[in-house]
Amino acid sequence: MNKRRKKKNKFTGVQKTIMAIIALAFIIVIFFALFTTFYTPENNIKSKISNLAKDYYENYLYELISDNSSAPAEALKGYTESGLSVVYLRQLLYYSNEIDTETIDYLTTHCNENNTTIKYYPEPPFSKTSYHIDFIYSCDF
């Protein structure tokens, strides 16, 4: 005859509850550690300014050059080393129609809009998206 043994639970209900609470606390600590590592005010500000700068070049500056020149690539070729004129943060904020007042307030609170500058350097093949940007931040981070 086979005797069936009754399996004993290794852990009681109270022990399982305590382990679940410890595991949940550990997950929360890891989440906040990762969040504070990647989401900093500096990264947030730089991301917002970068998005504004990209939109400004691709939808305003490049279009302006294209409209005023029969060959935008030729017009931009001379600016690969020296870059286009400096653009100030205040210009980006003034240009953007889609920016909300909360973002404007946030950026103007943390950055000097007259000293934070953006300089565009067109790159071959001189298309709408072929450029790089140099930022000079005058922000409190």
Topology:
Blueprint: H1 13-38, H2 41-68, H3 72-77, E1 87-88, H4 89-95, H5 101-110, E2 117-122, E3 131-136
Antiparallel strand pairs: 1-2, 2-3
Please provide a written account of the structure.
- The longest helix has 28 residues, at 41-68.
- The chain has two domains: 10-39; 40-136, no CATH class.
- The protein starts with 12 loop residues before the first helix and ends in a 5-residue tail after the last strand.
- 55% of the residues lie in helices and 10% in strands.
- The mean pLDDT is 89.
- Helix 2 (41-68) crosses helix 4 (89-95).
- It contains five helices and three strands.
- It has a three-stranded antiparallel sheet.
- A hairpin with an 8-residue loop joins strand 2 and strand 3.
- With 141 residues, the protein is mainly alpha-helical.
Mean pLDDT: 89
Order of helices and strands: HHHEHHEE
Name the helicity range.
Answer: 40-55%
**Estimated radius of gyration:** 27 Å
Strand order of the largest sheet: 1-2-3
Helical segment count: 5
How many angstroms does the end-to-end distance come to? 77 Å
Number of strands: 3
Percent strand equals 5-15%
Number of domains: 2
